[in-house]
Amino acid sequence: MRHAQLQQIAALDNSEDRGIVAYFSMEIAVEPTMPTYSGGLGVLAGDTLRAAADMGLPLAAITLAHRQGYFRQHLDASGIQTEESQPWDIEALLTPQSPTVTVKIEGRPVVIRAWRHDVIGVTGHTIPIYFLDTNVEQNDPRDRELTDHLYGGDGDYRLRQEVVLGIGGARMLEALEYRPVVYHMNEGHAALLTIALLEKQLFGSPLEAADEKTVESVRRRCVFTTHTPVPAGHDRFSAEQSNRILGVERTKVFERLGCFHDDLLNMTYIALRFARYVNGVAMQHGKVSREMFPDYKIDAITNGVHAATWTAPSFQSTFDRHMPRWRQDNLSLRYAIDIPEAEIEQAHQDAKSVLIAAVKERTGVELRPNIFTLGFARRAATYKRCDLLFTDPERLVKAAHDFGGLQILYSGKAHPADEPGKAKIRRVIELAQELDSADLTIVYLENYEWILGALLTGGVDLWLNTPKRPYEASGTSGMKAALNGVPSLSILDGWWIEGWIEGVTGWAIADHDDDAGEAGSLYDHLEQVILPLYYHQPEQWKRIMRSTIALNGSFFNTQRMIEQYVLNAYFPEQRMDHSAAALEPILAR
Ligand SMILES: *Cc1c(COP(=O)(O)O)cnc(C)c1O
């Protein structure tokens, strides 16, 4: 990182004034034992904090306690999903903090307390995460449940939660004596922190006194990352909900500042209006976001994954032997290009055996280590098209037969309210049973979460991703696979547009306007390129595994990502400005 940024960070890391970057996220995957995340957004937040800890960034994070977790998924034999809540022992795993803060929700005062968990980096630097909790005796019973369910309840519940996260979080940091210099909103859920900053800036004057100057002083401190390429994915609330839950004054100010769209209070517009820097999460997503929000300047910083977290133990030892400082310096994964093919192959076979053992334990199904194994695991949202691979089942069966075997591992939860997503899971499970034969084994593993994600991206031979363009903002599971030498076969969307080098890091499914065309390209790749390589040119396959690590593992990690946030989002004042206007005073000397 450049010298100027390092100096700025060093100046911040002065515990006297507790100047920090404050990172707000509705979900954070902190530990596999803590069910405080639902999927990609939470995993990204956790990986961001792990990388920030490794790099010694002065940062603190705010999230909600989610005492009942997200949900545990059960699938019956016919593929019907049922959900179970996941209460966890926050008293045993987190440290209570003494300050409490109060926010007003629906006219009622709601007391919020915080619990702390530390993320400790490779060099011992600590990043605190504060989990906000409204399960406090003084609170109305309705409010005591506000920090129980991640993405549970109705719109009212969500808006109340966002008051706790945004307004409660900003006040809690204040009460804990932090003086953040940057507030990072990880997705629009945290957008209400801006109203807390605005209110503070007014020193007790009513909100209607807020002018462009007051807004600007809030903007100077706020950074916003948008994650959703679909308008319907952005949180929106009616004026009635806003008036009732947030209050008339706040609603008026949001109206005046243009945060209502189609008569709905839109969290993304609040964040856009109040952030001095906005980014999407891959180059393509930046472009889609600029088209969606043409009045705003939107940059892009491509997501990453925390390398040490998502590298299988066998590859960790391999990297330790060849690039001993890869955990401190992820760029050194580039030197994986010198690791002998035999060692790559051995590390992969070890990771594959671990996966095969886990599948046996969970399902009783015995997979074979020398059979090509394809992995597909992600949220069962319809745009992810988990059934694209089954568009022409006969072709799949024939390929499996012709090459002497194919194993397919599936996993993924559907949001409890997502009936079409649940139908997709049933369809895949039905087909798995129908097509099961000596040559083709398909297993749907229930309850996709962190550990299963690590096993799958570590141990399959190919990672498949078939989203409908342009709905995949980034995607990160393919990056986890890359760290383990697992190439991707994917639609050119999200991060894959940047990570794809045909035949070197994986393969691209050709763009078509219809599902059938894209499925055709998928089969073509399997039959004509991928299966022949795997079964008949093993030396070439090992080289692909190796270049996948060297090229994509070294770049698509959260260490590189955080450096880009520091350079472009957190401390951009330090950026060299080569514009003619900026050079004028220098040239005039
Ligand atoms: C990495 C991960 C995700 C996100 O992966 P995508 O490629 O964005 O689908 C979701 N859930 C779990 C459990 C993960 O580990």
UniProtKB/TrEMBL annotation:
- Carrying N6-(pyridoxal phosphate)lysine, the residues are K480
User: Which cofactor does the UniProt annotation name?
Assistant: pyridoxal 5'-phosphate
Output one GO MF annotation: pyridoxal phosphate binding
Alphabetically sorted, this entry's keywords are: Carbohydrate metabolism, Glycosyltransferase, Pyridoxal phosphate, Transferase
Any GO BP annotation: carbohydrate metabolic process
Q: Which reaction does it catalyse?
A: [(1->4)-alpha-D-glucosyl](n) + phosphate = [(1->4)-alpha-D-glucosyl](n-1) + alpha-D-glucose 1-phosphate
In this record, what's one Pfam family?
Phosphorylase
Q: What Enzyme Commission number(s) does the record list for this chain?
A: 2.4.1.1
The UniProt entry, under SUPFAM superfamilies, shows: UDP-Glycosyltransferase/glycogen phosphorylase
* Keyword Cytoplasm among record annotations: no
The role this protein plays is: Phosphorylase is an important allosteric enzyme in carbohydrate metabolism. Enzymes from different sources differ in their regulatory mechanisms and in their natural substrates. However, all known phosphorylases share catalytic and structural properties.
Q: Which family does it belong to?
A: Belongs to the glycogen phosphorylase family.
Q: What is this protein called?
A: glycogen phosphorylase
Annotated organism of origin: Silvibacterium bohemicum
Lineage summary: Bacteria, Pseudomonadati, Acidobacteriota, Terriglobia, Terriglobales
